[in-house]
């Protein structure tokens, strides 16, 4: 499974800029920035999630 976040943000920004639904410029910039934030944060969110699940499992026993 290839995650969307593994592709370069610049490539996605160009895709958003050429996308007919989104306005030129500002929205594309916001989307590419948000993508960058998400791709940086996802591993931490996943790790945090796993830690929470582990602590919940311990509490149940």
Automatic annotation (TrEMBL):
Tree of life domain: Eukaryota
Transmembrane stretches, start-end: 27-48
Keywords: Membrane, Transmembrane, Transmembrane helix
Name of the featured protein: Uncharacterized protein
């Amino acid at each position: 499974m290839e995650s969307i976040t593994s592709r370069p943000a610049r490539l996605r920004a160009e895709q958003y800029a050429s996308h007919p639904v989104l306005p030129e410029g500002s929205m594309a910039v916001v989307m590419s920035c948000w993508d960058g934030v998400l791709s940086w944060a996802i591993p931490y969110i996943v790790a945090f999630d796993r830690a929470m699940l582990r602590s919940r499992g311990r509490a149940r026993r």
